[in-house]
User: What shape does this take?
Amino acid sequence: MKVEILYRGKVIGCSDLQPVDPPMGVAAGPLDATLDYDPLLHAYVIDGDDNDVDSNALSARSAEFGMIICAVVCVEDFNKTLNELNVTLLGIAEPDYATVFAAHPMHEA
Assistant: This one.
């Protein structure tokens, strides 16, 4: 599922999410950051260190499904140490997880 990641309504990156844990409604993928991305404001982990961010400030939206209703959107920034930037959505409630990932072999909940 292709999504935009937003910080207080502003797009900070995009990702093509894959199912990670269907029973728990978890999906994740690499984050392709925009110029508006700032790890100090958006990432809850920076190169292994906890970062105090507003966990309610991030959201996700899909062109196909609209706003993704989930418990939390988390960015993990390991850009300096591993050259990786990832986003995880936990507890996806809407749209229905099975519907979104129906074509993916791991979709079975």
